[in-house]
Amino acid sequence: MTAFLLPLLAAAALAPAAVQAQANVTGSCVTGRITFDRLRTYSNVLPGSTPKLNVSTYDMIIDYASKNVEFPSTGGASLALIKDPSGKAATGTRVSTTRYILYGKVTARFSALSLPGAVTTFISMSDRKDEIDWEIVGKDLNSAQTNVFYKGIPEFALHGSTEAVADVSKPHEYTIDWKHNTLSWAIDGVVKRTLNKDTSISPLTPPGERWYPSTPSLFQISVWDGGASDSKGTSDWAGGAIQWGSRSNITALYEWIDIQCYDDHDNPVPKWPADATVNPDKKAAPSNQPTSNDPKQQGNAAVRVGAAPMALVAAAVFGGLVSVLAL
Ligand SMILES: *[C@@H]1O[C@H](CO)[C@@H](O)[C@H](O)[C@H]1NC(C)=O
Ligand SMILES: *[C@@H]1O[C@H](CO)[C@@H](O)[C@H](O)[C@H]1NC(C)=O
Ligand SMILES: *[C@@H]1O[C@H](CO)[C@@H](O)[C@H](O)[C@H]1NC(C)=O
């Protein structure tokens, strides 16, 4: 957190007056569509290496299990959940934007896994674990779940919702519209839920604060085996052990991610900050990369307790995963 903020603050101080006047400029958002071009997706994160990624060169990074990501000739990225031959948890994968975004409207078009036990996600995640979720559990063919977390504070069943959608195995556009004071979730352009910062509190919200993501975040997509979780609550939530039948893998096709950056007044802008000097690089620290299939180590609000949709926020695995180089 500290390592992350310092260069941003330093850069903000150097920013042109017009930008500086709007204050608190962070992230390195660029408006546009990410189509998962293989050449613009970094896929070579090796344990023990520390790639320094140029965000102008790479849109996305496969955080682990790059063999689980294929790039069909028809476009997009296919994320596989691969059955473990010995019956342990299937291997999933996760792909993150290389750029941090602080407020913007981000839409992903994808077809989710629809086998009970499998989980398909599209979320935001900040270094301090502010998190905004779309999560689809394979046992629910006609619904998708939203959630929101603040500072990684574990909190149960207070901030989630379940929203109707016709057949999650078909392509749908899932939107997270994240503004300074309101957050909304939409499917196929129809707003399903809106959260207002002013009224977003709950018993575990620190005094004087709001349960509201407010730090620069990566946007991430992933598939994971919820049914194999050691936590019965998580497993039940996901739909129990995956019944593979004759299959050895199942895949979710993500077609694209659209990003619309907002400025400090929530106006749509081509990029933010305007001079795009902040945060030009992302440095991954793969020594912290998970190698286990345990969904607790796969981020994305993975630990569930009790009946759905109860979430204990993601285990503190990814806190040190990414940091930003000083300019
Ligand atoms: C910038 O952030 C600081 C610290 O969080 C806050 O006190 C200040 O009001 C913010 N300024 C603007 C213009 O949002
Ligand atoms: C990042 O890539 C862009 C585009 O290829 C290039 O212009 C720029 O010099 C690169 N930055 C660094 C620090 O290598
Ligand atoms: C999934 O299984 C299909 C059919 O067996 C195979 O063609 C494909 O390569 C597999 N995908 C992965 C990522 O293993």
UniProtKB/TrEMBL annotation:
Record has Transferase as a keyword: no
Leader peptide range in chain numbering: 1-21
GO molecular function: hydrolase activity, acting on glycosyl bonds
Transmembrane segments: none
Protein name (Swiss-Prot/TrEMBL): Glycosidase CRH2
Higher taxonomy: Eukaryota, Fungi, Fungi incertae sedis, Chytridiomycota, Chytridiomycota incertae sedis
Region Disordered, residue ranges: 268-300
Comp. bias intervals (Polar residues): 286-300
InterPro entries: Beta-glucanase-like, ConA-like_dom_sf, Glycosyl_Hydrlase_16
UniProt entry keywords in alphabetical sequence: Glycosidase, Hydrolase, Signal
Species this protein is from: Polyrhizophydium stewartii
Short name of one Pfam family: Glyco_hydro_16
Keyword Signal: yes
Recorded superkingdom: Eukaryota
All residue ranges annotated as the GH16 domain in the record: 23-265
